[in-house]
Write a structure and sequence with these properties.
Elements: H1 6-27, E1 37-38, E2 54-55, E3 58-59, E4 61-62, E5 65-68, E6 71-74, H2 80-100, H3 109-125, H4 128-131, H5 136-139, H6 143-154, H7 162-169, H8 174-190, H9 200-203, H10 205-214, E7 239-241, H11 254-265, E8 272-280, E9 285-290, E10 295-300, H12 306-325, E11 333-338, H13 341-348, H14 355-366, E12 372-377, H15 385-398, H16 410-430, H17 455-466, H18 470-478, H19 494-500, H20 513-518, H21 521-531
Parallel strand pairs: 1-4, 7-12, 8-11, 11-12
Antiparallel strand pairs: 2-3, 5-6, 8-9, 9-10
Helix pairs in contact: 2-3, 2-6, 3-6, 6-7, 8-16, 12-13, 12-14
Domain RNase H type-1: 268-399
Pfam families: RNase_H
InterPro entries: RNaseH-like_sf (IPR012337), RNaseH_domain (IPR002156), RNaseH_sf (IPR036397)
């Protein structure tokens, strides 16, 4: 409860506790008064008394922090207690990574990153939508855990720059990740009007500031509603024919594929054939369906993914059939052909949260006694007449001036949200100056060494790419002077060893630094082994 006056709080809280006690007497539940505690959230600096509360004539003890659903809530609501405890718990988990990340016999790069994300980062993520309102200085407590976990997975040297570590692993800073998780939570609450936090982004300043910063419109009409799930045993799984997957259009001639298609279709003589397709370019998305008797095309939200656009084409086909074809005295059996394998797989997955595929399954289930609709996957651009017609209709609609339908599934909104939030991190990397890894890495994308390499070789390559190795930077740990090349009389760096030093001229890779560290790692490893340098 919230109030400006302690007396009001005391009366309201005590009344609620009395009602709760009365309910336990009639329901059979019992509370242990000795285990019950209370906490008073207040940021006033002046001393003030707590309200006097009791349960079953036992006075409640007020504490400075309390644990609720895994979160430690403190009286100042600054989450310092929770953040410190979270750091302590995660550092214990880091000990497992220290063992498994041995640079000689440890697990490979990819496995260690998966371990970090599933075992440590997941713990950092839990409750982040709540504690992300803490001050930036308090949240920095967790950064050391994040950086150490990534460094152990990569096998990078201890002095490696944080920006290089995160870029090489493809792991954004925790501040970026918290924004992504917070945005995803807002999307989930916004798509369902029944959710208790449906209007949270309107009333909460913290959430409103995030959306304004990203310039994202979360108006309800734009988001497809949350699907209503039925019990699995009542959901009708669509009948889908995948026989055309035995053909490979990159190897089999198109005439043979078309013959195979006609042979399969001949088994459905009483079925009307309908072909669906979708198209997408940089600024538009469109869907269409075609049959010898009718056709339809529609412009969709430009933010829609191609898979969901294909599903929308199927959905509008079902709408059209139910509205126009079943009322006439004609055949009610249809064979719907599409070239989108992912759309059909989403339809077949009864546990898929996709609202478009859920709506299609719902319509098929409600009309199962009057509509016989089968699906068939076909390869695209092999000369199948109906598929080419639907593809042409969809492409024509991309450039039409007709208004687009704004509906979009939450999954596509999540991708847009993540891309917008991550763009700031990518821009920081693009304009980064003075970083050794940035000299050979233009895009801020994860780089994975070949899995066929040993852990020792993966660590060597990572350290060479980042530019911090045992040979060139161990002096920072020992507080010594930077090492010098005893031949060239200059500072010893990775660039100097691989490119400039005349001592290794005879065995050096003739390519430049960018090429040898990106395109030909085997040559670099051979060079390091021949020179017997310890990285």
């Amino acid at each position: 409860m919230k109030s400006k006056f302690i007396s009001e709080l005391e009366v309201c809280m005590q009344h609620s506790l009395d009602n709760l006690t009365s309910w336990t007497n009639t329901s059979g539940f019992l509370f242990s008064p000795q285990k019950c505690q209370a906490i008073h959230f207040c940021r006033k600096r002046k001393t003030h008394n707590h309200p006097k509360l009791s349960i079953s004539n036992h006075d409640l003890t007020f504490v400075n922090s309390i644990k609720l659903l895994g979160l430690h809530l403190d009286v100042k609501w600054n989450f310092k207690v929770h953040l410190n405890q979270l750091k302590t718990d995660c550092l214990k988990r880091i000990n497992l990574m220290k063992i498994l990340s041995n640079i000689r016999w440890g697990a490979d790069y990819k496995t260690l990153l998966l371990l970090y994300r599933g075992y440590i980062r997941s713990k950092l993520d839990y409750g982040s939508i709540v504690y992300s309102s803490a001050s930036p200085s308090s949240l920095k407590i967790l950064d050391t855990v994040h950086h150490q976990g990534v460094r152990l997975a990569l096998g990078a040297f201890r002095s490696s720059p944080i920006t290089s570590l995160l870029s090489e692993a493809g792991e954004p800073p925790l501040s970026i990740r918290r924004k992504i998780l917070l945005g995803n939570y807002l999307l989930r609450t916004r798509r369902d009007p029944r959710h208790i936090h449906h209007s949270l982004h309107d009333s909460n300043l913290h959430y409103r500031a995030l959306l304004q910063d990203l310039n994202i419109n979360l108006s309800l009409p734009n988001i497809l509603p949350c699907p209503q799930f039925s019990t699995p045993w009542t959901i009708q799984v669509p009948s889908i024919n995948y026989e055309m997957r035995k053909f490979d259009k990159s190897q089999d001639c198109h005439e043979m594929i078309k013959s195979g298609f006609l042979e399969i279709v001949s088994r459905f003589p009483q079925f009307s054939k309908i072909y669906t397709d979708a198209s997408k370019n940089d600024s538009s998305v469109a869907a269409a369906f075609w049959s010898p008797d009718f056709s339809f095309k529609v412009k969709l939200n430009p933010l829609l993914s191609i898979c969901n656009a294909e599903l929308m084409a199927i959905l509008y086909t079902v709408y059209f059939i139910l509205a126009n074809c079943l009322s006439e005295v004609r055949n009610s059996s249809f064979l719907l052909c599409t070239d989108s394998l992912s759309a059909l797989q989403s339809l077949q997955d009864i546990f898929s949260p996709n609202p478009v595929s859920s709506e299609i399954r719902k319509l098929l289930h409600e009309n199962k006694h009057t509509l016989n609709l089968c699906f068939m996957w076909i390869p695209s651009h092999v000369g199948i007449h109906g598929n080419d017609k639907a593809d042409l209709l969809a492409k024509e609609t991309l450039y039409s001036t007709s208004p687009a339908i704004d509906k979009i599934p939450i999954q596509d909104f999540k991708h847009i949200l993540k891309r917008k939030i991550m763009s700031s991190w990518h821009e920081d990397w693009e304009y980064l100056i003075g970083n050794k890894l940035r000299l050979i890495k233009e895009e801020n994308k994860p780089w994975h060494p070949p899995q066929t390499f040993s852990r020792r070789d993966q660590v060597t390559l990572t350290r060479l790419r980042i530019g911090h190795t045992n040979l060139t930077h161990v002096h920072l740990m020992r507080k010594e002077q930077p090492p010098e090349c005893n031949v060239c009389q200059c500072n010893l760096t990775v660039k100097h060893i691989l490119k400039d030093c005349c001592k290794y001229q005879n065995i050096r890779n003739p390519n430049n630094l960018h090429a040898c560290l990106n395109n030909d790692p085997t040559s670099v490893l051979n060079f390091i082994k021949m020179t017997k340098l310890k990285m």
